[in-house]
Amino acid sequence: MWQNENNTLTRTFLCKDFRKAMAFMLECAFVAEQMEHHPEWSNVYNKIVVNLRTHDAGNTVTQKDYDLANAIDTIFENYK
């Protein structure tokens, strides 16, 4: 589940393997680009850590972050 910590929505996702993790990130990237809202994230093998906050709103969590988080959750359903 997403956690709101220090004005950042954060969540860790675990995929089956590296290939699935990369596919998940790529699919999320296309959605983020459509939404014009880009995550801060990192990947090590099958683990993806996603941090969301709105930079042009003073680095706080806004509705844009919640919308992207929901989209990412929907995408992840295909990568569990």
Could you characterize the architecture of this molecule?
The chain has 80 residues and is α+β, with helices and mostly antiparallel strands. The chain has a single domain (3-76), classed as Transcriptional coactivator/pterin dehydratase (Gyrase A, domain 2, 2-Layer Sandwich). It contains 2 helices and 4 strands; from the N terminus they run E-E-H-E-E-H. It has helices spanning 18-35, 63-76, and strands at 3-4, 9-14, 40-44, 47-52. Strands 1-2-4-3 form a 4-stranded antiparallel beta sheet, covered by helices on one side. Helix 1 runs antiparallel to helix 2. The longest helix is centred in the N-terminal third of the chain and has 18 residues, at 18-35. The radius of gyration is 12 Å and the shape is globular. The two termini are 14 Å apart.
Please bin the fraction of helical residues: 40-55%
The name CATH uses for the topology is Gyrase A, domain 2
Point out poorly predicted stretches.
Answer: none
Reading the helices and strands in chain order gives EEHEEH
N- to C-terminal distance: 14 Å
Total domain count: 1
Total DSSP helices? 2
Main CATH class: Alpha Beta
Mean pLDDT: 97
Round the Cα radius of gyration to an integer and report it: 12 Å
Keywords:
80 residues, alpha+beta, 4 strands, 4-stranded antiparallel beta sheet, globular
In short:
The protein is of the alpha+beta class.
